[in-house]
Amino acid sequence: MEQIFDSHAHYDDEAFQNDRAELLQRLPQLGVCCVINAGASLESSLASARLAEEYPYFYAAAGVHPECVSGIPEDYLATIRHLASLPKAVAIGEIGLDYHFPDMAPKEIQRRIFEEQLSLAAELGLPVIVHDRDAHGDTMEILRRYRPQGVLHCFSGSVEMMREVLSLGMYIGLGGAVTFKNARVPVEVAREVPLDRLLTETDAPYMSPVPFRGKRCDSSMIVYSAAKIAEVRGISSHEVLEAARENACRLFRIPK
Ligand code: NI
User: Fold this and answer.
1) 207 alpha carbon to ligand 1 midpoint, in Å?
2) pTM of the prediction?
3) Structural domains of the chain ordered from first start
4) What mean pLDDT comes out for the span 71-90?
5) Which of 87, 93, 202, 220 could cross-link with 61 by S-S, CB 3.0 to 4.6 Å?
6) Which residue in 123, 67, 136, 70 sits closest to 92, CA to CA?
7) Which residues, listed in sequence order, are joined to residue 96 by a DSSP beta bridge?
Protein backbone atom coordinates (compact mmCIF):
# COMPACT_ATOMS: atom_id res chain seq x y z
CA MET A 1 0.00 0.00 0.00
CA GLU A 2 1.20 3.52 -0.81
CA GLN A 3 2.02 5.94 1.97
CA ILE A 4 0.31 9.21 1.19
CA PHE A 5 1.46 12.39 2.92
CA ASP A 6 -1.05 15.22 2.67
CA SER A 7 0.91 18.35 3.54
CA HIS A 8 -2.10 20.66 3.39
CA ALA A 9 -5.73 20.02 4.32
CA HIS A 10 -8.61 21.67 6.18
CA TYR A 11 -10.56 18.90 7.89
CA ASP A 12 -12.06 21.40 10.33
CA ASP A 13 -14.04 22.78 7.37
CA GLU A 14 -17.82 22.49 7.62
CA ALA A 15 -17.79 20.36 4.45
CA PHE A 16 -16.79 17.51 6.78
CA GLN A 17 -19.26 18.20 9.55
CA ASN A 18 -21.53 15.22 8.83
CA ASP A 19 -18.94 12.46 8.53
CA ARG A 20 -15.61 13.82 9.80
CA ALA A 21 -14.94 11.11 12.41
CA GLU A 22 -15.89 8.31 10.05
CA LEU A 23 -13.73 9.70 7.22
CA LEU A 24 -10.71 10.34 9.45
CA GLN A 25 -10.94 6.78 10.81
CA ARG A 26 -10.97 5.45 7.24
CA LEU A 27 -8.17 7.49 5.61
CA PRO A 28 -5.28 5.43 7.05
CA GLN A 29 -6.87 2.31 5.56
CA LEU A 30 -6.71 4.09 2.19
CA GLY A 31 -2.97 4.67 2.55
CA VAL A 32 -2.92 8.11 4.13
CA CYS A 33 -0.01 8.09 6.59
CA CYS A 34 0.12 11.76 7.52
CA VAL A 35 -1.97 14.92 7.29
CA ILE A 36 -1.01 18.46 8.15
CA ASN A 37 -4.15 20.40 8.97
CA ALA A 38 -3.52 24.04 8.13
CA GLY A 39 -5.01 26.84 10.19
CA ALA A 40 -6.69 29.73 8.41
CA SER A 41 -8.18 31.76 11.27
CA LEU A 42 -7.62 31.65 15.04
CA GLU A 43 -10.64 29.33 15.36
CA SER A 44 -9.44 26.95 12.67
CA SER A 45 -5.90 26.99 14.07
CA LEU A 46 -7.38 25.85 17.37
CA ALA A 47 -9.45 23.23 15.53
CA SER A 48 -6.26 22.01 13.81
CA ALA A 49 -4.58 21.59 17.19
CA ARG A 50 -7.58 19.57 18.42
CA LEU A 51 -7.53 17.29 15.36
CA ALA A 52 -3.80 16.70 15.88
CA GLU A 53 -4.49 15.79 19.48
CA GLU A 54 -7.24 13.35 18.53
CA TYR A 55 -5.71 11.59 15.50
CA PRO A 56 -2.21 10.09 15.72
CA TYR A 57 -1.49 10.70 12.00
CA PHE A 58 -2.49 14.38 12.16
CA TYR A 59 -0.18 17.34 12.69
CA ALA A 60 -1.19 20.98 12.98
CA ALA A 61 -0.17 24.31 11.52
CA ALA A 62 -1.27 27.55 13.17
CA GLY A 63 -1.68 30.77 11.24
CA VAL A 64 -3.92 33.46 9.86
CA HIS A 65 -4.75 33.19 6.14
CA PRO A 66 -4.96 36.46 4.15
CA GLU A 67 -8.69 35.87 3.70
CA CYS A 68 -9.11 35.97 7.49
CA VAL A 69 -7.01 39.00 8.46
CA SER A 70 -9.95 41.44 8.58
CA GLY A 71 -11.04 42.01 12.16
CA ILE A 72 -8.52 39.75 13.89
CA PRO A 73 -7.75 40.82 17.45
CA GLU A 74 -4.62 42.89 18.04
CA ASP A 75 -3.11 40.16 20.20
CA TYR A 76 -3.69 37.44 17.58
CA LEU A 77 0.03 36.67 17.50
CA ALA A 78 -0.05 35.51 21.13
CA THR A 79 -2.71 32.92 20.23
CA ILE A 80 -0.69 31.71 17.22
CA ARG A 81 2.44 31.55 19.36
CA HIS A 82 0.65 29.41 21.94
CA LEU A 83 -0.86 27.03 19.37
CA ALA A 84 2.48 26.78 17.53
CA SER A 85 4.18 25.66 20.71
CA LEU A 86 1.94 22.60 21.23
CA PRO A 87 3.66 19.22 20.79
CA LYS A 88 2.10 18.36 17.42
CA ALA A 89 2.36 21.82 15.86
CA VAL A 90 4.83 21.61 12.98
CA ALA A 91 4.44 24.90 11.07
CA ILE A 92 3.09 28.42 10.92
CA GLY A 93 0.38 28.50 8.26
CA GLU A 94 -1.29 29.05 6.19
CA ILE A 95 -0.07 32.59 5.78
CA GLY A 96 0.52 34.80 2.79
CA LEU A 97 -1.13 37.10 0.30
CA ASP A 98 -4.31 36.83 -1.75
CA TYR A 99 -5.05 39.59 -4.25
CA HIS A 100 -7.63 37.57 -6.18
CA PHE A 101 -10.85 39.10 -4.90
CA PRO A 102 -11.18 42.89 -4.68
CA ASP A 103 -13.05 42.66 -1.35
CA MET A 104 -10.11 41.09 0.49
CA ALA A 105 -8.33 43.03 3.23
CA PRO A 106 -6.17 45.89 1.92
CA LYS A 107 -2.80 44.75 0.58
CA GLU A 108 -0.78 46.65 3.17
CA ILE A 109 -2.65 44.92 6.01
CA GLN A 110 -2.20 41.51 4.38
CA ARG A 111 1.51 42.22 4.01
CA ARG A 112 1.88 43.31 7.64
CA ILE A 113 0.12 40.20 9.01
CA PHE A 114 2.17 37.97 6.68
CA GLU A 115 5.43 39.57 7.82
CA GLU A 116 4.52 39.40 11.51
CA GLN A 117 3.88 35.67 11.18
CA LEU A 118 7.12 35.14 9.23
CA SER A 119 8.97 36.83 12.08
CA LEU A 120 7.24 34.57 14.59
CA ALA A 121 8.16 31.48 12.56
CA ALA A 122 11.80 32.60 12.49
CA GLU A 123 11.75 33.20 16.22
CA LEU A 124 10.20 29.78 16.94
CA GLY A 125 12.37 28.00 14.36
CA LEU A 126 9.31 26.65 12.52
CA PRO A 127 8.73 26.26 8.78
CA VAL A 128 5.91 28.20 7.10
CA ILE A 129 3.10 27.18 4.75
CA VAL A 130 2.65 30.03 2.29
CA HIS A 131 -0.50 30.90 0.35
CA ASP A 132 0.06 33.08 -2.73
CA ARG A 133 -2.85 33.79 -5.03
CA ASP A 134 -2.39 36.43 -7.72
CA ALA A 135 0.28 38.05 -5.55
CA HIS A 136 3.53 36.58 -6.92
CA GLY A 137 5.49 39.85 -6.98
CA ASP A 138 4.83 40.91 -3.40
CA THR A 139 5.09 37.33 -2.08
CA MET A 140 8.54 36.88 -3.59
CA GLU A 141 9.69 40.32 -2.42
CA ILE A 142 8.77 39.39 1.16
CA LEU A 143 10.20 35.85 0.95
CA ARG A 144 13.50 37.23 -0.36
CA ARG A 145 13.78 39.37 2.77
CA TYR A 146 12.71 36.74 5.34
CA ARG A 147 14.12 33.58 3.70
CA PRO A 148 11.93 31.22 5.74
CA GLN A 149 12.03 27.45 5.69
CA GLY A 150 8.77 26.21 4.25
CA VAL A 151 6.56 25.50 1.27
CA LEU A 152 4.67 27.48 -1.34
CA HIS A 153 1.45 25.56 -1.19
CA CYS A 154 -0.76 25.04 -4.27
CA PHE A 155 2.07 26.56 -6.27
CA SER A 156 0.66 28.58 -9.17
CA GLY A 157 3.75 30.41 -10.43
CA SER A 158 5.92 29.84 -13.49
CA VAL A 159 8.92 27.53 -13.76
CA GLU A 160 11.09 30.65 -13.49
CA MET A 161 9.44 31.64 -10.19
CA MET A 162 9.76 28.03 -8.99
CA ARG A 163 13.52 28.23 -9.53
CA GLU A 164 13.73 31.31 -7.35
CA VAL A 165 11.62 29.65 -4.62
CA LEU A 166 14.00 26.69 -4.74
CA SER A 167 17.03 28.98 -4.55
CA LEU A 168 15.61 30.36 -1.30
CA GLY A 169 15.61 26.78 0.00
CA MET A 170 11.83 26.35 -0.01
CA TYR A 171 9.63 23.50 -1.21
CA ILE A 172 6.89 23.39 -3.88
CA GLY A 173 3.43 22.03 -2.94
CA LEU A 174 1.41 20.47 -5.77
CA GLY A 175 -2.13 19.10 -5.64
CA GLY A 176 -5.25 18.66 -7.74
CA ALA A 177 -4.45 21.57 -10.07
CA VAL A 178 -1.87 19.48 -11.95
CA THR A 179 -4.70 17.23 -13.20
CA PHE A 180 -6.93 20.00 -14.54
CA LYS A 181 -7.43 20.07 -18.31
CA ASN A 182 -6.16 23.66 -18.67
CA ALA A 183 -3.15 23.07 -16.39
CA ARG A 184 -0.25 23.94 -18.69
CA VAL A 185 2.04 25.78 -16.24
CA PRO A 186 1.42 23.51 -13.19
CA VAL A 187 2.30 20.53 -15.40
CA GLU A 188 5.55 22.23 -16.47
CA VAL A 189 6.33 22.85 -12.80
CA ALA A 190 5.50 19.21 -11.95
CA ARG A 191 7.97 18.10 -14.63
CA GLU A 192 10.78 20.49 -13.65
CA VAL A 193 10.66 20.56 -9.83
CA PRO A 194 13.53 18.54 -8.32
CA LEU A 195 12.12 15.39 -6.73
CA ASP A 196 13.66 16.30 -3.37
CA ARG A 197 11.71 19.61 -3.20
CA LEU A 198 8.21 18.41 -4.03
CA LEU A 199 5.37 18.08 -1.51
CA THR A 200 2.02 16.42 -2.23
CA GLU A 201 -1.12 18.08 -0.88
CA THR A 202 -4.86 18.42 -1.33
CA ASP A 203 -6.20 21.66 0.20
CA ALA A 204 -9.20 19.44 1.10
CA PRO A 205 -12.14 20.01 0.93
CA TYR A 206 -11.09 22.09 -2.11
CA MET A 207 -9.10 21.38 -5.28
CA SER A 208 -10.19 17.80 -5.96
CA PRO A 209 -8.17 16.25 -8.76
CA VAL A 210 -9.77 14.95 -11.95
CA PRO A 211 -11.92 12.75 -11.99
CA PHE A 212 -13.40 14.24 -8.80
CA ARG A 213 -13.12 17.90 -9.80
CA GLY A 214 -15.89 19.95 -8.16
CA LYS A 215 -16.61 17.27 -5.53
CA ARG A 216 -15.41 17.31 -1.94
CA CYS A 217 -11.73 16.44 -1.77
CA ASP A 218 -10.01 14.18 0.76
CA SER A 219 -6.41 13.07 1.21
CA SER A 220 -6.83 9.66 -0.45
CA MET A 221 -7.35 11.47 -3.78
CA ILE A 222 -3.67 12.46 -3.79
CA VAL A 223 -3.01 9.25 -5.74
CA TYR A 224 -4.57 10.97 -8.81
CA SER A 225 -2.33 14.04 -8.53
CA ALA A 226 0.70 11.80 -7.89
CA ALA A 227 -0.16 9.72 -10.96
CA LYS A 228 -0.20 12.86 -13.11
CA ILE A 229 3.10 14.13 -11.68
CA ALA A 230 4.61 10.66 -12.23
CA GLU A 231 3.33 10.52 -15.81
CA VAL A 232 4.88 13.84 -16.87
CA ARG A 233 8.19 12.88 -15.22
CA GLY A 234 8.26 9.34 -16.62
CA ILE A 235 8.55 7.71 -13.19
CA SER A 236 6.17 5.69 -11.00
CA SER A 237 3.54 7.11 -8.66
CA HIS A 238 5.25 5.19 -5.91
CA GLU A 239 8.47 7.16 -6.44
CA VAL A 240 6.55 10.45 -6.34
CA LEU A 241 4.68 9.55 -3.14
CA GLU A 242 7.80 8.23 -1.43
CA ALA A 243 9.86 11.31 -2.31
CA ALA A 244 7.07 13.65 -1.23
CA ARG A 245 6.71 11.83 2.07
CA GLU A 246 10.44 11.98 2.77
CA ASN A 247 10.52 15.66 1.88
CA ALA A 248 7.58 16.52 4.12
CA CYS A 249 9.04 14.56 7.04
CA ARG A 250 12.32 16.44 6.57
CA LEU A 251 10.74 19.89 6.29
CA PHE A 252 8.25 19.47 9.14
CA ARG A 253 10.60 17.34 11.27
CA ILE A 254 8.17 14.47 11.55
CA PRO A 255 9.69 11.03 12.24
CA LYS A 256 9.28 8.73 9.23
NI1 NI B 1 -5.46 25.89 2.25
Assistant:
1) 10
2) 0.97
3) 4-252 (3.20.20.140)
4) 97
5) 93
6) 123
7) 131
* CA 81 – ligand 1 centroid, Å: 20
40, 64 contact by CB (below 8 A): yes
* 90-110 b/e (C-beta count within 10 Å ≥ 16 → b): bbbbbbbbbbeeeebbeeeeb
**What is the predicted pLDDT for the residue at 191?**
98
Q: What is the pLDDT of residue 102?
A: 85
Amino acid at site 159 = V
CB-CB contact of 242 with 141 (8 Å): no
Between the CA of 206 and the centroid of ligand 1 the distance, in Å, is 8
Q: DSSP label at 208?
A: P
Q: How far is the CA of 38 from the centre of ligand 1 (A)?
A: 6
Mean of the per-residue pLDDT values for the chain?
A: 97
Kindly give, in sequence order, each residue whose CB lies less than 8 Å from that of residue 82, ignoring residues fewer than 6 positions away: none
What is the pLDDT averaged over residues 10-20? 98
Q: Answer yes or no: is pLDDT of 111 > 90.
A: yes
Residue type, 156: S
CA 209 – CA 215 distance, rounded (Å) = 9
